[in-house]
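Working notes for the structural subgroup meeting. M.R. asked for a predicted model of this chain before we commit to crystallization trials. I am recording the input and output together here so anyone reviewing the notebook later can reproduce the run.

Input as submitted:
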Amino acid sequence: MGSIEAQPLASQPNPLSIEETRMKRTALYAACLFAALNICTLSARAESTVQAQTYSYGTPLDIQKVLSMTEDAEPSCGVVNARMTYLDSQGRTQALDYRKFANNCNDGN
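Returned structure, recorded in C-alpha cell form:
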C-alpha cells in the first residue's frame, strides 16, 4: 500500500490575529462614534455662542438656510421676542433677534 502523506491544512487564521482584528474593529467603531458625537456637540456649541443681531426694518439679511426658530413662551396672543438661527451664504452660523406675533394667535384675532 502506498503511504499517506500529511497534507498541510489550508492556511487558517491564527486565533490571536482574529482577536486583534476584533479589537481594532471595535476601536475603529468607537473612534467613529466619538467623532460623530463631537461634530454634533460642536455644532450645538457654535449655535449657542453666536452673537445675535437685533433686526430692525431695513436690516440686510443673508440667509442661506434656517437652522432653528424659537420664541418666548407666552400663554396668550400678543407680540413676543423671537430668534432665528441660520447659516449665511458663506456657511457661518448667525442669529437674529426680532419681535413678532406669537404662534398661538388666531389670524390676528
